[in-house]
Amino acid sequence: MQEYDTDNMDRINIAWITSCREIGLDEKIGREIIDPQTGFNYGYRTGSLEALARLLEEDNLFSRKFNLVAVILDDNNEQYNSAWNESELWPRDITIPYRKNGDSTSETHTLEDITVSIPSQPWKDLRRNRQEGETRKEFRQRKAFAKAEYETQMLRTLESREVDLLVSDSYTTIFNGTMLSNYRGRIINVHPAITEVGNPYRLPGLTPTRDAYTRAKHGWVIVDDKYRVDIPEGDEIQVNYDGEQRTAIKVPAYNTTGVTVHVVSEQVDNGEVIMNQEYQFNPETITSEGIRTRNYEIKRELLPAAIQHYTNDSTIKQLMMHERHKRLQKIATGVR
Fold first, then answer.
1. Looking at residue 293, what DSSP letter applies?
2. pLDDT band at residue 7, thresholds of 50, 70 and 90?
C-alpha cells in the first residue's frame, strides 16, 4: 500500500449505525428510567449518539477533527415509528457543524438531515421462509444474495457520504462479506460488556446486561439464545428465568463487567479491543437496570476517547487515506 502524508489529514468523516427498536424499546433511550425492581429513579437516559452530537456541537479537539455525516437506521417505517412513539431517542434538530474535506468553509446540518433508513427486515423475512421446491443449497444462496444486496445499499450510502469510519452502536445485525471486505478495519463497535478474548469477564453477544446480572446473582449464563458467539465452559443446567425454562452454563459468580470499543471482525464481538473499562458492582443490590445505566454512563465517555485513540494510530490513518485515494481514482475514471 502506498505511503501517504497524514500530518495534515482532513477531518475524518464518521457514520453511525443503530437500531431504533433496540435502543428505544429495549434500552429505553430518551426516557426517565425507574428501576422496576427497586423503584429507584435513574433520571433521563441519554444515548451515545446524542452525547456524540452534543460533543460535536461545541468547539473542542474532537469537533475539530471529526464530521458526523450519516446516521443509518436498520428500521422500517413501522419499527421506526413504534420506537419513537415510546420516547424521543435523540433530539433530531441538534445542529452539527460540517466541513467538507478540501473546503475551508463550514456548513451545518441536523441529525434529521443526515439520517438514512436502510431496513434489514426485508432480507430477514426472506431468510426465514424457504420456498416450495427450493433445495437447502438454493435457500442458502438466496439468503446470502439478499444479505449482500442489503449491505450493498449500506455501502453505497457510506461511499456517497465519503465515510472514513463507521461506528456501530446497538446494531444487532452481523456484518457479512460485502461490508467487511470494503470497510475492514474501519468499522468499530461499542459493546456493553468486556469482549477481550481470554478475559474471565468476557460476555459477547446480544444479551450482555442480562448475562452480567445472572452471572453475578446466580452463577450462570443463559446460552440457548447465543448465536455465532463462543459460550463459557462449564456444566449445562436448566434454569427458570422470567417464568421460562432456559438452558444455561454454570460459571463463576463474577461481579465485574464493563464496556468495550472494538474493531468489527467476522466473529461476533471478537475483534481487536481499542479501549475498555471494567467496573465492579454489589451483587446483593444490583439490578439489570442498574447495570445498563452504568454501562451507558461509561459508553458516553469511552466511545469518543476510543474513536480519537483508534484514528490516531498511524496504520489506521494510512488505511483511511488509502481508501480516500481509491475513491478519488474511481471518480476520476468514472467508475462506480
1. H
2. confident
Neighbours of 45 (CB within 10 A): 20
DSSP H/E element including 122? helix 121-128
Those residues whose C-beta lies under 8 Å from the C-beta of residue 179, and which sit 6 or more positions away, are 151, 154, 155, 187
Which residues, in sequence order, are CB contacts of 58 under 8 Å at separation 6+? none
Residue 3 has pLDDT above 90, yes or no: no
* pLDDT tens-digit series, residues 99-128: 876 666 678 999 999 999 999 988 777 766
Q: How far is CA 162 from the centre of its chain?
A: 19
Average pLDDT on 46-54 reads: 97
Residues near 68 by beta carbon (within 8 Å), at least 6 away in sequence: 14, 15, 16, 52, 53, 56, 96, 98, 114
Place of cell 469477564: 201
For the segment 160-184, the average pLDDT, to the nearest whole number, is: 95
In this prediction, residue 17 has a pLDDT band, given cuts at 50, 70 and 90, of very high
CATH topology of domain 12-196+257-333: Rossmann fold (3.40.50)
Residue located via cell numbers 454501562: 295
CA dist., res. 117 & res. 14, Å (int): 17
Q: Cα(214)–Cα(287) distance, rounded to whole angstroms? A: 10
Q: What is the mean pLDDT of the chain?
A: 93
Separation in Å, CA 282 to CA 115, 141, 294: 40, 49, 13
Q: Tell me how far apart the alpha carbons of residues 79 and 21 are, in angstroms, rounded to a whole number.
A: 6
Nearest-angstrom CA–CA distance, 80 and 321: 35
Q: Which residues contact 98 (CB under 8 A, 6 or more apart)?
A: 67, 68, 69, 106, 107, 108, 109
Write a three-state SS string for 176-235. Answer: CHHHHHHHCCCEEEEECCECCCCCCCECCCCCHHHHHHHHHHHCEEECCCCCCCCCCCCC
Q: What is the pLDDT of residue 222?
A: 98
